[in-house]
């Protein structure tokens, strides 16, 4: 069945005469407009516009289609507006993308207090950047910046990727190995331990290992669990190692349930960004969510220097 948003986009292009004008009218990206148009043309089986410079001129078939859908679309939009006024008042709905662990650690505790509707989406960062650009998402939290000129990126915090372990890991033995400054010995010691990983993302381990040993790890995790928060809970059992972002396990380290094992000879840090489109009708709601993230991050700023110095003493 055809996506009604394709018709809405088609109408906006017809009315404004440009892809840019349609994007501004609909508060979505120009690539998103182009995608909707190409999808509709593929669906109906013929070209709807001829491009002359930046102007979009409707073809004869395009004019016929516009005459057929314009009035029904207008009625549908009126129904939508009346329905929203009568049932949802003026409450907007914001779609936000982030990783599952970030949601659990930050925004989840505030969801019930939000004065607007919220849809949370989980996925890989490239996918979320693409959905933001197309207007599917309104805000994303990501450690990676995209290249689309339609997206604004704002740095708001950072995360350090650290090596942690269960409380029963023999840190005294590791401390002695670290003092040798022999990378091969350090690597061999670490590889003898039990390791945790996740089903979908081993990037943290790969980056940490490559930065400190010059190559990717040549071993597999012993235990594969659903996500990083599962790893933290498993480590509380006493044994095992994992490489994770520091903010996910700050409380467990402070409580002595998990140990900070090593920051690495070279520290691995990522900048965290808010990503949103330049043109959005949800600026107030987006700023509200940004404020909650800043509040959480300011409470959970984690400096591991004191912890690592205790291990190395």
Automatic annotation (TrEMBL):
InterPro entries hit by this protein: LysR_HTH_N, LysR_subst-bd, WH-like_DNA-bd_sf, WH_DNA-bd_sf
Annotated signal sequence range: none
Superkingdom in the source lineage: Bacteria
Keywords, comma-separated and alphabetical: DNA-binding, Transcription, Transcription regulation
Keyword DNA-binding found: yes
GO function terms (MF aspect): DNA-binding transcription factor activity; transcription cis-regulatory region binding
Domain HTH lysR-type positions: 2-59
Annotated transmembrane regions: none
Pfam families tied to this protein: HTH_1, LysR_substrate
Keyword DNA-binding among record annotations: yes
PANTHER family per the UniProt record, alphabetical: HTH-TYPE TRANSCRIPTIONAL REGULATOR, HTH-TYPE TRANSCRIPTIONAL REGULATOR GLTR
Family: Belongs to the LysR transcriptional regulatory family.
Protein name according to UniProt: DNA-binding transcriptional regulator, LysR family
């Amino acid at each position: 069945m055809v996506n009604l948003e394709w018709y809405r986009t088609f109408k906006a292009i017809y009315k404004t005469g440009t892809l840019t004008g349609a994007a501004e009218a609909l508060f979505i990206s120009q690539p998103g407009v182009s995608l909707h148009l190409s999808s509709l043309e593929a669906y109906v089986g013929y070209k709807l516009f001829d491009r002359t410079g930046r102007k979009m001129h409707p073809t004869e078939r395009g004019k016929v289609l516009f005459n057929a859908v314009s009035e029904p679309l207008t009625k549908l939009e009126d129904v939508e507006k009346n329905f929203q006024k009568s049932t949802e008042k003026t409450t907007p709905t914001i779609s936000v993308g982030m990783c599952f662990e970030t949601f659990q650690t930050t925004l989840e505790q505030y969801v019930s207090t939000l004065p607007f509707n919220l849809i949370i989406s989980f996925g890989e960062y490239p996918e979320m950047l693409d959905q933001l650009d197309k207007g599917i998402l309104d805000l994303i939290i990501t450690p990676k910046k995209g290249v689309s000129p339609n997206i604004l990126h704002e740095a708001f915090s950072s995360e350090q990727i650290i090596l942690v372990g269960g409380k029963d890991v023999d840190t005294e033995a590791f401390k002695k190995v670290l003092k040798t400054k022999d990378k091969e010995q350090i690597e061999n010691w670490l590889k003898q331990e039990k390791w945790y990983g996740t089903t979908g993302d081993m990037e943290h381990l790969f980056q940490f290992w490559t930065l400190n040993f010059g190559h990717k790890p040549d071993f597999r995790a012993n235990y594969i669990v659903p996500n990083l928060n599962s790893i933290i809970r498993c480590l509380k059992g006493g044994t095992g190692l994992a490489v994770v972002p520091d903010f996910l396990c700050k409380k467990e380290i402070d409580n002595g349930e998990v140990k900070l094992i090593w920051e690495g000879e070279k520290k691995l840090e990522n900048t965290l960004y808010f990503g949103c489109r330049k043109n959005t009708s949800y600026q107030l709601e987006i700023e509200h969510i940004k404020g909650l993230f800043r509040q959480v991050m300011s409470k959970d700023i984690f400096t591991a220097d004191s912890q690592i110095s205790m291990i190395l003493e």
